[in-house]
Design brief:
Layout: H1 5-22, E1 25-26, H2 27-37, H3 46-58, E2 62-68, E3 74-80, H4 82-110
Antiparallel strand pairs: 1-3, 2-3
Length: 124
Amino acid sequence: MDIDKDLVAASATPLILAIVAEGDTYGYAILKRVTELSGGQLQWTDGMLYPVLHRLERLGHIEGRWGASEIGRRRKYYGITQSGRAALANQRQQWQAVDAALRNIWFEIWSPRRRAPARAPSYS
């Protein structure tokens, strides 16, 4: 299934903040974690990830620092800041509200006990 690009873009900030909140991490590891968390449904690219990381860094929600990888190459690690934790909490509340609204309407639509659809008013 292809997930709509608008939905992918909308979910990028909370996903990245939540992954970085698990512990300091780097770009490729974030890409792998998103794929893992989504059961392979989301497969981000570098071109999608790094602009969001840079924006979150500019906003002060994450901090980047250079360090060495296991193979000795330099790698930029990202950690969440206090403002990032606050932003993540806010994002979580917003997504929970959206999730609840969608679950409620989907339950109404597909419930076996669904009421008959409302009739359009007659103007005659």
